[in-house]
Each structure stands twice: as structure tokens, then as C-alpha cells.
Amino acid sequence: MAHRSRSSRRLLAVGAAFAAVTVLAGCTSSEVGGGASDPATDGGTLLYSGFGGSYEESIRAAVFDPFTDETGVEILFDTDGSNVAKLAETISAGATSPDLVDTETRTLAQFMAEDLIQPLDFDLLDVSDVASQDTINDYSVPWYQFSRNLFWNADAFPDGGPETWADVWDVETYPGTRSFPTYPTGVLEVALLADGVALDDLYPLDIDRAFAKLEEIKPNALFGGQEDVAIAQGEVVAGLYTLGRIRDIQAGGANVEYSWNGAVVSVQSLTISKNAADPELAHKAIQFALEPDQQRAVLEALKYTPSVTSVLDELTAEERADLPGTPETNELTFYIDGDWYAENWDEVSARWQEFVNS
Amino acid sequence: MASKTARQHQGWGLFTLPAVAYVVGIYLVSLTALVIRSFVDGENFGLGVYAKLLASAGFQNVLINTVVLSLVAAVLSVAIGYPIAFTIARTRGPLRAFLFICILTPYLTSILIRTFAWQVVLGQQGLINSFLTAVGLPKADLIYNATATTIGLIHSQLPLVVLILVPVIQRVDPSRMLAARSLGAGPAESFFRVFLPATKPGIQVTFILSLVYSAGSFAVPALLGGNSGRMLGSFIHGAIEEQADYSVAAAASVILGLVVFLILILFTTLSRQKIQSVVAPQIAAAAAPVAQTAGEIQKGESLTETIALGEIGGTGEAGGLGGETAPAVHATWWSRITTRFAQFLDRTRLSYIKGLGTAVSIVLAILVLIPQLLAIPISFSGTRALIFPPQSWSTQWYVNFFQPTWLDPTIISIRVGIITALLSTALGMLAAIGVSRTPSRWLRGGITPFLLIPLIFPAVVAAGAFFIAFLRVGLVDTQTGIILAHVAITLPQAFIITLAGMQTLDPDYERAAASLGASRARTIRKVLIPLLSGQIVASLFLTFITSFDESTIAIFLSGVSVKTLPRRIYEALAVQTDPTVGVVAVLFMALVAVIGIAWAISQRARRRLANGRSTS
């Protein structure tokens, strides 16, 4: 009998805990997925679609908090910056879409191909300070620039690693596994560079030639999401990877080196989606992000290269020589052509999937 | 009297309603959303996506890879698991306990931690390559290929295989083999021709479960597979994350679901086993040690037996796993091969070596445990890279675990696990009470397999379905979404465990309560729940652990706003190496050890108490 009453008391406790925890869950889950406008601020609101995490924190501190201080505009954040499918669904459902979408050249091409963003009104923007005027197109102005570089594991090649893409393809002299990103942007280009195409002659890309060259390296290459660990662990000896992450891996103690030869430069842009609630305010935010103060803050917080001449000129030549999109490195590197990818995205994407999966 | 009995039986079926409504409302609706999505081809609606997928050489390759690797993993899991299970079943004392620990430790730790262990074993700076370098051999590329995937899959299925096979083997009378020996057969021949066939249903079930679970796995091929080890799980995940092509992801999920479904249909038809006898043993296997650990179930094996003997749903038919199946009379190609093999072993006198089988089992069991033990030195590594043996030492990763980047996901996982355990145990228990007490044959026979659907369906298909469905209603990347999905997949566990308890309960308890004027609610609260407390604890524990360890759905559904511990571990394995995963593994093992020791002490104390009483 005593046993029974103990059991039921325990069950009561369990029930109480259950109720408490359910309430707890209700509270925390309602925090996320916000996005409805909050009319509390007088300057209006902007929904910014980014990537969350530490990136969001840095961007918020560098650009959006000062923007709110100056204009009274409240910024809402979501994390679907690269989610092409979700934006397509939002727009096709006729719902209000984010005002600002944070894109890199690769996703910019997809957004353009799917007709999800709107052309900028250049009457509302002053882009004269932008250093690489070629990278401005109808939909985007570069906000900052970053690169993917050729890297190699110096432990694997004590006598000097592969410093050109042709070397990376030379598995006799430099044996070992290579790694490349899981998407085609940049990879097709370095394959063509390895095959002898000159930097200036890359676009329009010869897709057949690029895939033929990629087939050559495929038995010795990894096209997978686990490349970061693979590089740090020395599982791969060379390849193409984001510079910021290569530096992190170096800081972690791995003996990895990189080259500016044939590095892939990508520009990050704030774009305006098709059903944006307040395009005019969005233009204001884009302009604000191009001002020298914000450009300096982005460089400091995220180590990305500013896109405006006035801030680039403040750097020493030595500093510029180790940053993408500067006069010092532009000789050796190339910009991804977002317009070309936007036109050819369906074909490139389909062939890439076939290549990776078979 | 008759009318009174009828009234007593009325309405019990309603107790199954919440669970059925949940499975329909969350699980089936999500699957339906998945199927509908797979027909959406741009502006058109139809089979266009399927046509494109099936014609694609890339998809064909991944599909074939999935089937072949899963088959190989399933065959090897059973082949390796059987001798270990045999030794456990046929020994007593410390050896049995040791083998059990070798199997249970990996079973209770996340599959991701085991995958991490294989990164340490197979990597360029890992255990095997360090050894090769030390003896002057060149390093080998061991990771990121089909072999690494297969090893990872086997390691993830083995513990379950062993836990299911142990009770099956235990039930077979060993004197059968003696009889065969006395008739002149060698030890190997008598084993292969007499003993092995008697455990055939268990072998079939473990094979099919390993096959289905391997086919639906995501993390192992994604983290160990590289190009040649690519499987459908990575394909589906890639279609969602990288191409953002949800129609392709949906169609690929549907195809994988259909393949698994066909395998199951084929299996149940050929083996004449019910679907619940495929699913139930794994829960029984999981629950048995859990229940023992919880120290609540008096007869440790009653649960396993109740379920494995096929009493679920009151079918009352024979055909359990340890069935007294008659040895096959007609010689199939399979039995011919095994007979040849056995005769070879007997002729070479290999099978006469005493203790050879036991030695093999011990070696295999240690191989199952070792990768995990490597986590201990790695957790004290001085470098971020996973180098084995570590070149320098530090405790920084232990400090790191208690930083928000690791502690927050841990807290979220604990919270999600607790809520999931409570919800699914409540729903599962009500359904179990309903099914076991309803007089309706139709309800009993229909609801049991229905509630088991979420358990047998490939995890990656469910993850894809939840993702597609939850996207519409804004539940992706929320705690609520993960909990809803976790309850759906753990509900069957809670149901089966409590059902087994209900079936051992004499309905006379309730009748007595009812005859004394207790209402049904009061009967459940005052009589059934206390009597089921052991099963309830086992169910809470198992559903909690399942949710806490669950990686596939968590990886698909969580990301930035909400991150569970398995999701965090996945990032540490895919995005940035982090020996903190080793710390998690060590903490996990320590927890298991503490629970195990506490259990052993409580058992000893109980025995002493019992002895004290009997002597006094």
C-alpha cells in the first residue's frame, strides 16, 4: 500500500513537471520565427535576411545598430539569406518578403535567375566610391568582397606545394586528395585555369571543357560538405576553400598555406527582394552600408575587404596584398560573373549535380 | 452480469484516439505534404520530377550505392553481431557483463560520437595511420570512401543486432546441438545445421532492421562517405541545403520510402512475420537493459519475451523470434553453402579448438568499444586537430564544453528530450491501455501496426517530410517543431513498452476496482499507473535518450535559432574540428558508468536484503 501511494505522488510530480516544461517550451519557441512588423518604432521597419549566428551579431554591430541610431528604423532579422526556395515560395504566395537579402555572387545569380529580386534605383544611390565598378550590376552594388583561395598542406609537401591550378591537377608531382566546394561557382573556373585558359578569357565559361577537366581530378577529389575538417586534419592536401576559414584553420595549428594565384573573388551585396514592403527605405540602408564608417567596421569585425576606394586607400600596400579585390591582388584573381551564372544557372546546376552524384 | 461486463469493455478504444490523432495529424500529414511537394514541378503538377530524377545517372548511382552499402552493412552487422550475442547468451558472470558493456556503451551514445570516433581511427593522423607510420609503412587513405561508410553503418547497427539476438539465442535449447553431435555431426556442422536455423527469425529481423536503418541514415555517409560513399540521405540533404530544390528532395525521399516499404513487404511476405515482430524486438532489446537499470521491472526479461513472443495486439498466434522453427528440410542454396562451410571447419578441426568462438567474440566486442575509448585521450588533446595519439595535452576542451556554444545546445537537447519523453509516454500509455482493453478485434489488429509506422520509416524520409511540412507553417528552426517531430518518432516506443506492461497485467485488477465503484479515470490513476510505473520509467528513459541522441531530424530542422546537441556535434564534425566532441563522449560514458554502478550497488543491496530476510 505504501508503495502505491509513493508511485502516485511521483506521478503527480511528473505531471507538474510536465506542465511547467510545456509552458517553458511555449515561451521559448515563440521567440523565434518573428518577422511580423512591430509598429513600436516611428522610423519604420526593415526585414533583413541574413545568416544568423556570429555573422549576424557582427553585421548588426557594424551596420544595423548605427543605422537604427541614426534613422530610428527598426531592423528585423531572419536567417534565410541563401534560401532561394523559401524566398521563391514567399513571393509566389504573394506574401511580404524581406526588404534586404544579403547575397554573395553565387546566390545573387540564383536570385536573379529565379526573378526574386528587383532592379536597384540608381537615382537613390551614390556608387561613385565603389572601387570595382565592373562588379555593379542592375540588381546589386558590392558591399564587401571575399575570396576562395588555392590552399595546400605544407606538411604533405615539404619541398613546396602546388601554387597554381595546373599544379593542383598534377597528381603525380603532388599526390593526395583534393577538396572543392559542393557548388559549381568558382570550381568550374579553376578547372579551366588548370586547363590553360587565361584569367581574362574565362567568361563565357566553356562548360563542357570545365567538366571534362573536373572528371580528370575527380578520382582524387572530394566535393563535400566536410571539407573544413578534412583540411584541418590533413585528409586533403590541396584544393579551393574560403580564405577566412583557411586562416581559422591556420590559427588552429594546421600547417596550411594559400596562394592568390587564380583565387576566386566574390562580392557580397545587399539586394532588395521583389515583394519588399519598403524599397525606398531599403535603398537608404544599402547606401548607409557603403559609407566609410560602416565599411571600416565590417573590415574590423569580419576581416572582409571594403568595396569603397576611400577606405581601401587607408590601408597599407602590405595589408592590401593579402586581401581580395584590391589593386594588389586583382592581377592574380578573378571576379565571379554573376550575370553569366544567372543566365546559365539551370544548366550549370543540373550538370553539377550529375557530376557530383555519379 | 453480461451487461455489466459489456459496459466495462465499452469505450476503452477511445483511449487510443489521442495517439492516433497525433500520428495522423503530425506524421501522416507531413508525409502527405512531402508526396504532394514531389509532384510540384515548377508550374506543373505531375510526375515530372520523378522522370527527371530516375533518368539522372547521378541519382541512379546514389540509389544503387544506398541499396548496396545498406545490404553489405546489414549482412556484416548480423555476421559480426551473432557470435557476440551467442557468447553473451551462453556465458555467465564477468565475461557476460564485460561483453554487455562493450555493446551497451556505444548503444547509449550518439551515433555522431561513434562517427567522430571513426574519424579518429581512420584519419590521416588517426590511430591506424599512426601505427602504419610507426612501423615504417606509407599512410593510407582510409576515410571518405564507401568502406568508411560501411564501417560506420555497421558500427551504428551492431549494438541493436546484438541486443535483439541475445534473448533469441537464449531461448534455443542447447541440447539440440548435443543431440546432433551424438548423431555424428562435427561441432560446426551441428551448429550450422541445427542451432542456427532455430534462430532464423531473429537473424531475419536483425538483418531487415539493419538494412532499413542503414538505408535511412544520414550522418554516417555524410561525414565518412566522400564521393564513393554517397547515399540518398546526403542527396536529400544536399537538395534542401545546397540547391534549395524541395521538389527534388521530396521526390528522392518518396523513392527511398517506397524502396524501404517494398523491402518490408517482401520480407513480411517471404518470412511470414508480422510487421510488429520486426519493430517490437528492437524496443524490447532497448528497454530490457533500461528497465533493469531503472531497477523497476521485477522480471527483467518478461518485457522482451512478451513482445518477442508475438503477443502484441492480442494476435495470440505463434511465431515469435525464438520460434521452435523446424530445421529446414529442403536444401536451399544457402543451407548448402553453410553446410559446406561447416564441414570445412570440422574437417580442418578448426571448430574443435576450445574457446575459439569465445575469443573471436571478445575480440569483436572490444573492436566495437575501442573507437569510443579513443575519445578519452582526444578530449585532453592540446591541439584543435584530431591527432591520435595527441602530441600535447590540455583541459581546454572541458572548459570549452561549459561555454554557451556547447552548453546552450545541451540545455536545449535536455529540454526537448524531457518534453518529448513526457508527451510521447502519455500518448503511448493511453493508446496501450486502449488497445489492450478494447474488445474490438479490429481496433487491436489495426491500431498496433498503425502506431508503429513512424518507427520503421527511414529517418531521413521523415526528416525530409517534417522539413517540407513545417516550412509552410513556420516551424522549421523552432523548438516546437523539433519536439513535434520527436514525439512522432518516439511515440511507438512508449506505446510498445507500456503495451507490454499492460498485457502482463490481469484485467481483474481493474474489474476489482470497478466493482468497488471506482470510475475509469480513478481506476487508471489509482490502479493502472502505479502498476505500470516500471514501464513508464523505462518509456520515459528510452524516449528521452532517443530524442536526446536524435541527429537526422535535428540536423534537418534546426540550424541557427535552435541548435540541439547532436546538431552542434554535427557542426563540429563537418564544419570545424573540435575535440569538445570527445568531452561530450567522455561525459556520456561517465553518465552511463555512474548509472550502471548505481544499479549494480542497488542490486547487491537488494540481494543482501533478500538474503538477510530469508536467513532470519
Topology:
The complex is a heterodimer of chains A (358) and B (616).
Chain A: H1 2-31, E1 45-49, H2 53-71, E2 74-78, H3 84-92, E3 100-104, H4 105-113, E4 142-153, H5 165-169, E5 178-179, H6 187-194, H7 207-217, E6 221-222, H8 227-232, E7 238-242, H9 243-251, E8 256-272, H10 279-289, H11 292-302, E9 305-306, H12 309-312, H13 317-320, H14 327-330, E10 334-335, H15 338-357
Helix pairs in contact in A: 2-11, 4-15, 6-7
Chain B: H1 2-9, H2 17-39, E1 40-41, E2 44-45, H3 48-55, H4 57-90, H5 94-108, H6 111-122, H7 127-134, H8 146-171, H9 175-182, H10 187-198, H11 200-215, H12 219-224, H13 232-241, H14 246-271, H15 275-294, H16 302-308, H17 333-347, H18 356-373, H19 375-379, H20 396-401, H21 404-437, H22 441-456, H23 459-472, H24 479-504, H25 508-515, H26 520-531, H27 533-549, H28 552-557, H29 565-574, H30 580-615
Antiparallel strand pairs in B: 1-2
Helix pairs in contact in B: 2-14, 2-21, 2-22, 2-23, 2-24, 4-5, 4-8, 4-11, 4-18, 5-8, 5-18, 6-8, 8-11, 8-15, 9-10, 10-17, 11-14, 11-15, 13-14, 14-23, 15-16, 15-27, 21-24, 21-27, 21-29, 22-24, 24-27, 25-26
Offer a quick outline of the entry.
The complex is a heterodimer of chains A (358) and B (616). Chain A is α/β, with parallel strands linked by helices and 358 residues long.
- Report the CATH C-level class of the largest domain in chain A: Alpha Beta
Tally of strands of chain B: 2
- The chain-level structural class of chain A is alpha/beta
CATH class of the domain at 7-37 and 395-578 in chain B: Mainly Alpha
Under CATH, the homologous superfamily of the domain at 7-37 and 395-578 in chain B reads: MetI-like
